[in-house]
Design brief:
By secondary structure, the protein is mainly alpha-helical. It is 71% helix and 0% strand. It contains four helices and no strands. The radius of gyration is 23 Å and the shape is elongated. It starts with a helix and ends in a 19-residue tail after the last helix.
Amino acid sequence: MNSSNILLRQGHREKRMNEQKDWTTSTRTRSIAYWVTTVLIAAEFASGGVIDLLRVPIFGGQELGYPDYFSTIMGVWKILGAAAVLAPRFPLLKEWAYAGMFFIMTGAVASLIAVGDGVETLVAPIIFTCLVVASWALRPSSRRLPRTKTKPERSSR
């Protein structure tokens, strides 16, 4: 082996190692971002669910026009959603939980707009909507539904 081949191999090896470091760093960063967003939304939904179940008048639904029992329903679903996104496995359940969280937060925005609340009341639900979407988008493959391949339809002749 001549010296140019050795240098070429060394350069290739270093490039490969740098690519592996970049991939590892981005995977680690993605994992951290996933867990930060997921813990934040789980904490919001778990605490919000408890507040709803106890009917604490912090964010009362009466001024929004919702009946009293609505907070009980929402409280149960919020707590179950928080548990679902934190629990290992069950990717289909997680998909439903994320969808429910998205509906709850966007529904909160719509409700606040409908009753004429100020822009400042929209900030928190919009931020939490973004966190829900970020957590959903960043989730690792072990927490996603498996990809399915669809067969092309055959024409019937």
